[in-house]
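#lab-general

N.A. 3:47 PM
ok so I finally got the sequence cleaned up, no stray characters, all 390 residues accounted for. can someone with queue access submit it? mine expired

B.Y. 3:52 PM
send it over

N.A. 3:53 PM
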Amino acid sequence: MLYFDHNATTPVAPEVADAMDVALRQVFGNPSSTHRAGQHARQSVENARRSIASFLRVTPAEVVFTSGGTESNNLAIFGLMRNLPGDRKHAVTTVIEHPAALEPFRQLEREGVDVTYLGADAAGLVNVKELERHLRPETVMVSVMHANNETGAIQPIAEIAALVHRLRGAGQSIYFHSDGVQAVGKIEAPAQPGPDLYSASAHKVYAPKGTGILAVRKGVPLHGIQLGGRHERERRAGTENVPGIMGLARALELCATDDPHHVASLRDRFETQVLSALDEVDLNGSPANRLANTSNLLFRGVSGEALLIALDVQGMAVSTGAACSSGAVEPSHVLLAMGRTREEAKSSVRFSFGRYNSEQEVDQVAGAVIASVRRLRATRKAPAREAQLV
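B.Y. 4:20 PM
back already:
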């Protein structure tokens, strides 16, 4: 299979698999145990924590290990919002967030929290001035993703962080969370002053599923949302996934050595071929302010699902949106928020390239897309011609 769905998940890097093999065979102790095997595991976890913290530009004490991006977002949102005082709490997020952030906020609304959902422009970007206009004295949380999983749009989180830090410096109890699941390993980690809480996931950076991170800045009043232990400085109960954590640390070390131009050149090569060969194909989102690996294209007159299936039959994996929403009959909420119609959203396909893709593979998928779109359009027009003949 030729794989072009790296925003959904990535293959495990061989070096990561090797690191995890060592962990599975040799580091089997419980990190909370006081005997030698347990302390060996604890030391391995802490070594990984220091390495990951350096990559994320935080301190080791600010790194909380979780089971993945969904848990990290849930922990950030529920763990902060439910712990903050006040009867009239207000939060601001966006309509283009991943469901792992949107659903927790919808639950908080059912619990009495007032939530404002910001829109996005045609490029898929949030307007910081608009965000600022919706802030109130009772606003206690802002949550805006770093990079969008469907379009790759990179949000202005440095400006948002500066705004929130300024308000907190003026005495308002307000904190900023950013879902960095799609950003980590692809663009630089946020510089100071950055988000107060920042989510990441291992399986987006060539490590296995089942491990995640929530970076929690010192002083953020976060409480754990699951009970049963005092792990992770009482912020996340549960025995740490030692092999997953060691694999994640190795994966981020490899990300630090990636050639940033490799996937960008593959994406641009792909788009140049497709856009020059086909009419009525548009890019969803900004051509510049997006992740280097992401291409979300609207193929007018073609069902995105039909194109996905046509490519899958040829051994090529692509996506019509977020993997978590596979099978959903509704079109992408992200594309709708950007102003696309339901038909346009359902005619869109995401291609996300990765470290191990080659130019030859890109040429193959571009050729397959061009041929498949032409065939699907011709098939769609055929009944109309037959009706005219009758």
